[in-house]
């Protein structure tokens, strides 16, 4: 699972995993050793940052953990999509890393800087905007099954019909000039080359159509995690989303090069019953 320094391998933890790990300092050495032994970095995404903003009581522990392991900031979803647009049709090859978090592991200001990062007004405003968007998203999610019924989409294979619609909607809103270049030749458009958006569409289809799950308040935040996942080497998620991603992986190549695990991966790695005392 080794990576190179030009395009380092990234391990992705979702917010639930970060919360469990932050509360268990005894597991940090095992995680650090795993990352160092495999030449990997723990990545923190905008999805993590926005949700962890609410974890006030854990900010000090989160900062200490992130500064104790090889850790990096992951690029924003908009940046990843823009790189996919620029690379089309060859496919995106840019690094996923925006910049280091831990840097020099003994840097005395690291913990203070990371802790204060979660206090930034910009992060608070972005989290507020995310909350404001939840009702609209829930309404749209409730309509997915109905729309799929109208289109006759019912199976895993039909996800390849649904996902391009989501890709086109996103590009039409944010990269309209690029998308209009396919006017009159839609059949040549390769939506699957936009891996971040393709997975974004697939997750919605699998959760709300195939699994027939009703949208939850937490879903909007959960979907902010998926954009970077096709470019990670290892993804550790809460159990349900882990099941969804592995379901997708069995039927679509977007996650072919990604190992997808749940919190049991970290429990096995550290030998600690993370979170089980609360279950």
Count of structural domains = 1
The strands making up the biggest β-sheet line up spatially as 4-3-2-1-5-6
Major sheet attributes: 6 strands, mixed
Strand percent estimate: 5-15%
> Unreliable stretches, pLDDT < 50, 5 or more residues?
1-6
Strand pairing plus helix content: what structural class? alpha/beta
β-strand number:
6
Straight-line N-to-C gap: 32 Å
Q: Calculate the mean pLDDT score and round it.
A: 87
- Encode the helix/strand succession as letters: EHHEHHEHEHHHHHHEHEH
Helicity, as a percent range? 40-55%
- The shape, in one word, is globular
Count of helical regions: 13
Could you tell me the radius of gyration in angstroms? 19 Å
Compact summary:
The protein has 279 residues and is of the alpha/beta class. The chain has helices at residues 15-22, 28-37, 46-52, 59-68, 77-87, 110-117, 121-151, 159-174, 176-180, 195-210, 219-223, 239-249, 264-270; strands at residues 9-13, 40-44, 71-74, 97-100, 234-237, 259-262. It is globular.
